[in-house]
Each structure stands twice: as C-alpha cells, then as structure tokens.
Automatic annotation (TrEMBL):
Residues 86-98 have a biased composition (Acidic residues). Residues 109-274 form the NAD(P)-binding domain. Residues 1-17 have a biased composition (Pro residues). Gene3D superfamilies: NAD(P)-binding Rossmann-like Domain (3.40.50.720). It comes from Urochloa decumbens. This is NAD(P)-binding domain-containing protein.
Length: 310
C-alpha cells in the first residue's frame, strides 16, 4: 500500500445547493450573481495531471472557498465583515496580552512564504505574516492570516508583530535576522536556508548569489547565537514543482547538489514546529527516495540523536 500523501487531501467545494442553504431559503440572488467569481491569485504552482489528484493550490482553494460550514468543519474562523473592525480593535488595544499560539512567517509575499502560509492553514494554525502588499495577501487568504506591514527595525512595530507569537518561520534568505530584533517570548525559530546550495555554485552564478550567500550566513549565525531553540533546514536548490510526489534524501552534503520542491520544503518547515530542540537542530534535505510517514516521530528521532552527540 503506497504511503499517504505529504499533505491531507481536502474535500471538494460544497455543491451549489449547500451554498444556497447557507444563504437562506428564498433569499434573492446577490448583485452580480450571474458573473463567475474570480479566485484570488495566489501563486503559480504546477497543476496535477490526473483529474482526481488535486494539486496543493487547488486543495487549499477548496478549503478557503468552501463556505462557512466547511470552515467550521476544519475549525477555522468565519470570515469577518470587511469594515475594518478587527484591525481597528487591535490598534485601540496595543498592550493587551495575547496567548502565545501564533506563528509568524517572515516573508509572506514570496512564493515559498505563501506555500508556508498554505501549509499552516491546513494545520489550523494561527498565522501572522510580514508582507509588503497587504491588500493582495488579504484578498488571497482572507482572515486566515493577520498581515503585518512595517519595519522590524521599528521597536513598536516589532512588538506588535511578535505579540502572541510562539514561533517564527523564516522561509527566504532575505537577511531577516541580519539586523538586531527583540525576539523576547519567541520559543522556536525555523530557518529555511539555501546556504549549502549557494556555496556550491561557481562562475557567474556564484557572483549572482554572493549577496544571498552573505545574508544566509548572517541569518544562520544570528539564529544560532540567539539562544532560542532553532531548527535550521538546509535545502537543495528550490524548485517550482509539485510536492508530495517524491521522497527525501537527508544525506550530509546533499543540499549542495540536490534539489527539492518548494511545496515539500514548505511542508517540512511547518512540520518542524512540532519538534522543538533544546538548542539547535541543523540538517540537510533534498528530494530523494526516503519516505517520511510520521514527521513528528522523525523530528523527535533527529533531536534525540543530535542531543546524544552533543
């Protein structure tokens, strides 16, 4: 029997009859009902070839657009009215203590950042994301994500962004940790790093990646020195290919020459949240032949082995 897919398959969007029931029997159609609803532009991800094998993006669109009943079935909140009330309420009470149950994604506008957000939504996580374009992100994800726009060097904004955050996922080598950031209260940092891949390039490619290499080196250095439990995932070259189709290779040195789907890399980042090391866990990964059925058990084994070596 083949292993289960890397991400759970979501049920299809409820039929029109269910949507009509949710609106209320006999309710007049809304203005523009004859028009076809446009789906938000998320990210360009390769579509699955088989009719019954929905891609990662198709499944998450079913989830987001499934209606109130499907959202409640998944434990997600109903969409809030577009009157700005939630945002205004937050601005009016900046000092209210929140439970630390949120995950902050440091680069919510990048392709890999959006894939991490989608994987977190499937995990029913409370999500905060640093973005440059708040409007497009809100159109794509609705109230599943709290969008934060600002400068992390601004202490007041940093305090607001990290309020209620228990973990930070940094999925892009953009120097997020290069500048001093007050991470007080954060319990876990997950850093996706392509440092090994950058170091293995030569010629013109090495020149083009020189800045990214320096940022990746700085991020790893700062994260390790922070004293906060951290998981550093050194991946092979990130590819815009469908995830869940291949296994993995965790051999030392594989990140320098291997490749991995961005969807798979995003999934590993999110699964890492369930395994918090005492200090630092660093491993390499690319797509390969090893199947991982239980990520929680896999991370627990890596953490135990790493602690025995230390």
């Amino acid at each position: 029997m083949p292993p289960p897919p890397l991400l759970p398959r979501l049920p299809p969007t409820p039929p029109p009859s269910l949507r009509a029931t949710e609106r209320g029997a006999g309710a007049p159609p809304s203005r523009g009902a004859g028009r076809r609803r446009r789906r938000p532009a998320l990210i360009a991800v390769a579509r699955a070839k088989g009719k019954d094998e929905a891609s990662f993006t198709e499944r998450i669109l079913d989830y987001i657009e499934g209606g109130p009943k499907l959202r409640r079935w998944y434990g997600a909140p109903d969409l809030l009215p577009k009157d700005g009330s939630a945002e205004d309420e937050e601005d009016e009470s900046p000092d209210i203590e929140e439970p630390r149950d949120a995950v902050l994604v440091s680069d919510g506008n990048s392709e890999i950042g959006q894939l991490v957000i989608l994987a977190l939504i499937l995990k029913r996580a409370r999500i905060k994301a640093l973005v440059k374009d708040k409007r497009s992100t809100e159109e794509a994800f609705g109230t599943y994500v709290e969008c934060m726009v600002g400068d992390m060097e601004d202490k007041s904004f940093t305090k607001k962004a990290l309020r209620g955050v228990r973990a930070v996922i940094s999925p892009a080598d953009n120097g997020f940790f290069s500048e001093p950031i007050d991470l007080k209260g954060v319990e876990h940092i997950v850093l996706l790093s392509q440092l090994a891949a950058y170091r293995n390039t030569g010629g013109l490619q090495a020149i083009m990646n020189s800045k990214l290499k320096k940022l990746a080196e700085k991020d790893e250095e700062v994260v390790v020195a922070s004293g906060i439990p951290c998981t550093i995932i050194r991946t092979g070259s990130l590819q815009s290919t469908p995830g869940g189709e291949r296994g993995f290779d965790f051999t030392e040195g594989i990140a320098a020459k291997g490749r991995i789907s961005k969807e798979d890399a995003a999934t590993i980042c999110v699964e890492a949240l369930d395994g918090i090391p005492r200090k630092t866990l660093i491993f390499e990964v690319a797509n390969g032949d090893e199947k991982v059925v239980d990520w929680k058990a896999w991370f627990a084994e890596q953490i135990k082995g790493d602690e025995e070596i230390q």
